[in-house]
Design the sequence.
C-alpha cells in the first residue's frame, strides 16, 4: 500500500504529496480547484456530526467512534473504494481545512485506514 499522509489544504503542494484528495464535506474558502486532484465529500463526516464536533472539540474519542460508524454507510463505502484505488496507485495526501492539525476528520480517517478505528487505541 502506498503512503498516505494528511495536510491542510492551505499548505502548498509538494511533489511527495502524490494525489491530493479533499476529504471535507464543504469546499474550503479561497482554495482554487487546481490545488485539489479529487474531492471525496461523501467520505467526510455528516453535517450533524461535523457540527457536533465543532461545538465539542474535547469529544475527540466520541467523534472518532461516530465517524467510524458513518464510514459504514453506502455513500461513504463508495468513496472509500475510490480512495483505496488511489492509494493502491501511489502516494495520497488527504486534505482538510480545519485549523486543528491533531484533531480533524482527515486524521480520524487516517487512523481508521491504519486499522485504529477504536478511539481507545491511541
Sequence:
Amino acid at each position: 500500500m502506498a503512503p498516505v499522509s494528511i495536510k491542510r489544504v492551505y499548505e502548498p503542494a509538494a511533489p511527495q504529496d502524490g494525489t491530493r484528495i479533499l476529504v471535507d464535506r464543504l469546499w474550503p474558502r479561497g482554495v482554487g480547484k487546481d490545488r485539489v486532484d479529487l474531492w471525496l465529500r461523501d467520505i467526510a463526516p455528516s453535517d450533524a456530526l461535523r457540527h457536533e464536533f465543532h461545538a465539542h472539540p474535547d469529544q475527540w474519542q466520541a467523534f472518532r467512534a461516530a465517524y467510524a460508524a458513518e464510514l459504514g454507510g453506502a455513500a461513504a463505502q463508495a468513496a472509500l473504494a475510490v480512495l483505496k484505488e488511489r492509494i493502491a496507485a501511489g502516494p495520497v495526501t488527504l486534505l482538510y481545512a480545519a485549523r486543528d492539525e491533531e484533531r480533524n476528520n482527515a486524521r480520524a480517517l487516517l487512523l481508521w485506514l491504519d486499522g485504529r478505528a477504536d478511539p481507545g487505541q491511541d
The mean pLDDT is 93. The chain has one domain: 4-116.
